[in-house]
Structures are given as structure tokens and as C-alpha cells.
Amino acid sequence: MNFNLQWTWFHRLGSPRWFYQKTQRWLPWLSVITLSLLITGLVWGLAFAPADAKQGNSFRIIYLHVPASVVALAGYYIMAIAGAVGLIWRIKLSYMLMRSAAPIGAALTFIALVTGAIWGKPTWGAYWVWDARITSMLILLFLYLGVMALRHTYSSNETADKASAILGLVGMVNVPIIYKSVDWWQTLHQPATIKFTGAPSMHPDMFMPLVVMIIGFYLFYAVSLILFTRTEILRREYRANWVKQLVADGSAEK
Amino acid sequence: MYFDSIQQLVNMDGHGVYVWTAFSISIVVMMALVLRPLWQSKKEFNNIKLHINLQQVNKAALQQKDSDAPHS
Amino acid sequence: MHNYLSAGFLGHLSRDLLLGARNKTDLLKPLIFFLLVSALVPLAIAPEAQRLAQLAPGIIWIFAVLATLLSVERLFSDDLQDGSLEQMLISPNLLIMPILGKITAHWMMIGLPLTLLSPVIGVWFSLPTVAMVPMMLSLAIGTAVLSLIGAVGAALTLPRQGGVLLAMLVMPLYMPVLIFGSATIQSAVDGLDWTSPLATLAALLAIAIALCPLAINASLRLAKNG
């Protein structure tokens, strides 16, 4: 009896319909919270936090660069794990989440790279410095783009999902290796490692808005992921009765 | 506020160009990450509506044909 | 000695070597490419021995990566076309041994000759003699890793081939190998400890041997349905 209940719960979690309906209710709230956090963090960081002693005001880019980098990296793991869950338990919804995670992660990595480059100019005098952080971010972008490109190699959604999941897992194993390698390569060529931030050594007045922004970016990721996944659900489940009902209801309201 | 005026906020002792450019690019990309799926959802919605309408038209046409059938 | 495991490995190793021997020209192409592009460098940059020697560790390794990329695309496609891939996939077992056999054959036909050819490039780039052996060791181990990782890419892109996607997928994964491979040569040139990055390369090889066949096995089964 207990076992049956557990499986029902588990399978319900994997139902695209359940996801669509649940998010319909909770997405507006999540969006409001996300927007509040992002606005608070940005206003605080850009206008109220003190300037850095060495870098002056350009250090404020940190409030965009670091959250984007953190979530971009976490996003790759989310994508890979969603793929693994799909492979192991064959849950369609998990594959849809994986599909959606790829472009979001790529876009965030792009933000991290661009803001990092813009930050580099006033700080080190050059737009691009091959330091460990930026180089690893660039490789992460290529990893994301690879997963996005692989989709078109396979004609059926099912095989395309599995292939992307395999590639995602291969990449996931490699991410720590790549980070460590680039880090090591950097120490070889630049004994004095330039650090963007020593987070604990930051003044709390500078650190707190950063925390707000990081949480805000994580929530933003969730909002975007939900939006993309809802589209993917419509795209794949268009033959299902509940979708037809949904569209019929939607047009009736107008 | 850390700055004494809005003008200073924009200028940021000369670093304003960098900070606000980085800010703008990030905001544009983030908006795209929300607007694009919304737009795609709308497109899918309309596609499905079209699909349903076509199905209904076909069904109606078949029923019409059936009711005309006694001729054969 | 002849149990199932080694039969699968040796069987496919010898088969691929035999097939390779029949198409010797296909084997020569990546090697000639390696030589050709290396010859481009002095023409494009400068024939001065000092500058070439500075570039040598990195350039040799980049060209080794490119040559391997060119060759790895064909790893499974011939088998797909003549139906022998389907034969392999009928087996209910994990295809670890056949896959490792094929990749070992590939390395013996591409990576190993590349390694043996590299002293020529070393001389062309005025690489100090002290760095020759470390260079060859790094290439020997490194190209094996490149073959393994490249095979994963080849298996994933099997339904639709056309070089660029394979390169896109595989390049990020190649970067650690590139870093440690060229670092081995550079350390030897600088008189530092070159066994340390070489050991890291060997560790990467161990990880690749353990994990790549699993990914390739899963991808090959997908390609059948593709």
C-alpha cells in the first residue's frame, strides 16, 4: 500500500500536465519575488554600496558578473542531472527541463563573459585577459553550445534527448577537470594570481547586495527554466486531451 | 546613496561607461530569456488552436458526407 | 587467456588494423596533414629558431589535436555503412572490449605514428634535444586520450556527420589534454620537472579508458535508432 503511494507521487512529479498546472499557479508569485530581489540587489549594489578602494566604481559590475557565473555553472549541473534522471528513470519531463536548461545556461555564461571583459578594461587595462576564471567560462560556453547543437543531429525527440543527456554527463565529468587544468595552467604562467574577489575579505556592505543578487539570479533561472519548459510541454504534448482542453478554454475566455 | 547626485551615479567617476554598459547588456539578455519563451508559448498556443480548428472542420465535413451517403 | 573479454578486444583490434592496412593512404593523410601544417608555421610567422622554439610545445600539440580530430570522424562510419555496427550491437553485453579494441587500433594507426614522427617537427622548430623524449611521451599518452574522447564525439554525431559538430563537441573536452601535453614539453625545455604534468596526462588516460567506452556504448545504441 505504501509502495503504491510512493510511486504515484513520483510519477505525478514526472507528469508534464502536473508541472504545467502547478506552475500556472505559482509562476506569478515566483516572478514577483524574483523581480523584487533583483531590483533590490541592483539598486543597493549600484547606488548604495561603497566603492572599492582599488578598483573604484567599476567593481560594481560584480553584482552582475558573479551571480551570472555562479548560476551558469550550477545550471550546467542542473542540465546534466536532469539528463541523467531522464536516462535512468525515463521521465519525459526531466528531458524537457534538460532541453530548456541549455540555452539559459549559455545566455548566462555569455553575460558572465561579457561583463567580465567589460570589467577587465578599467581594472587591468585589457578587455580580455586569459585568466583562469574567464578561460573556464569560455570553455563552459562551448560545452553548452555543443549540447544545443547536438539536438539537430537526431530526427526523433527521444534519441536526441538521450544523446544530449550522454553529452551532458560527459561534460559534467569534465567540468571539474577543465577548471582544475585551467587553474593549474594559470599558476604556471602567472605566479601572482589576480583575484576578482576575496569574498570573506569583502566588507559586509559590499557583500550583502551580492548575496541578494546571487539568490535573485537563482530564482530568475528558475523562472526562465519554467517558462521554457512550459513551451516545450506545449510543443511535445499538443496531441494530449488536456492540452486541447487548455487551448479551447483559453480561446473561449477571449 | 553612495553618490551625491543622479549625475554622479551615471558618471561614477568615469567608470560609468563600463558599469552601465555591462548592466544594459545583462538586462537585455535577461529580458530575452523571459520574453522569448513567452512568445514561443503564444505561437504554440495558436498553432494548437489552428490544429483543433482544422480537426473540427474535417470532422464536420466527414459528417456532412455521411449524411449525404444514402445516394450510394 | 582466450576468454570472452580478450576475444572481443583482440578481435576488433586485429580487424581494424587489417582494414587499416588495406587502406594505407587513408592512414597517411592525417600524418601528412601534421607535417604540412607544421611547415606552414615558419612561413606564416618567422623562420627564426628562437621564436619557433618558443612556439614549439604549443604548436606541436595543437596540430596533434587537429590531426586526431580529422581522423577520428571515420571511426564508426565505415562500420555503420557496411552493417558491421549492427552486428556488434546485437550482442546484449556492454561493448566495452570491442570499443576499446577499435580505439586501440585507431591509436596505433594515428597517434603512435604521430608520436614517432614528432621528432622531425621538433627538429624543424629547433626544440632542445632535452625535450624530445618528454615530447614523445606526452604525445604517446595524450593522443590515446584524444582518440578516446574523439571516439565519444564520433559516436554521438554518427547519424549526421560533417566535421564541425564533432569538433565543437570535442574541443572543450580536449583542452585539459592540450594544457598538460604542451606543459610537459615546455617544462622539459625550461629544465623543470616534466614528469608531473605527464603523470596528470596518464591519470586523464586512466579516467578516459574507464569512462569513455560507457558513453560510446550508449551513443552507438542510439545511432541505430537515429
Summarize the structure.
Chain A is mainly α and 254 residues long.
Please describe what this structure looks like.
The complex is a heterotrimer of chains A (254), B (72) and C (226). Chain A has helices spanning 2-13, 16-48, 62-89, 92-124, 132-150, 157-189, 204-236, 241-253. Chain A is mainly α and 254 residues long. Chain A has one domain (60-240). The longest helix of chain A is centred in the first third of the chain and has 33 residues, at 16-48. Chain A is globular, with a radius of gyration of 21 Å. Chain B has 72 residues and is an all-alpha fold. Chain B has one domain. Chain B is built from 2 helices and no strands. The N and C termini of chain B lie far apart (87 Å). Chain C is mainly alpha-helical and 226 residues long. The radius of gyration of chain C is 18 Å and the shape is elongated. Chain C starts with a helix and ends with a helix. The model of chain C has no long low-confidence stretch (mean pLDDT 89). Chain C has helices spanning 4-22, 24-44, 49-72, 77-82, 84-90, 96-109, 111-124, 132-156, 164-190, 195-225. Chain A binds chain B through residues 42, 46-51, 56-58, 60-61, 64-65, 68, 100, 103-104, 107, 110-111, 114-115, 118-119, 121-122, 220, 223-224, 227-228, 230-231, 234-235, 238, 243-244, 247-248, 250-251, and chain B through 1-3, 9, 12-13, 15-16, 18-19, 21-23, 25-26, 29-30, 32-34, 37-38, 40-41, 44-45, 47-49, 51-52.
Number of helices of chain C: 10
Measured by residues with Cβ under 8 Å of the partner chain's Cβ, the largest interface is: A-B, 43 and 31 residues
Q: SSE string of chain B, helix = H, strand = E?
A: HH
Query: Which spans of chain B of ≥5 residues are poorly predicted at pLDDT below 50?
Result: none
Number of helices of chain B: 2
Biggest sheet descriptor of chain B:
none
**Oligomer status:** heterotrimer
Distance N to C terminus of chain B: 87 Å
Strand content of chain C: under 5%
Question: Which structural category do the helix and sheet elements of chain B fall into?
Answer: mainly alpha
Number of DSSP strands of chain C? 0
Distance between the termini of chain C: 37 Å
How confident overall, as mean pLDDT of chain B?
A: 87
Which H/E pattern describes the elements of chain C? HHHHHHHHHH
Compute the CA-based radius of gyration of chain B: 29 Å
What's the story with the biggest beta sheet of chain C? none
Mean pLDDT of chain C: 89
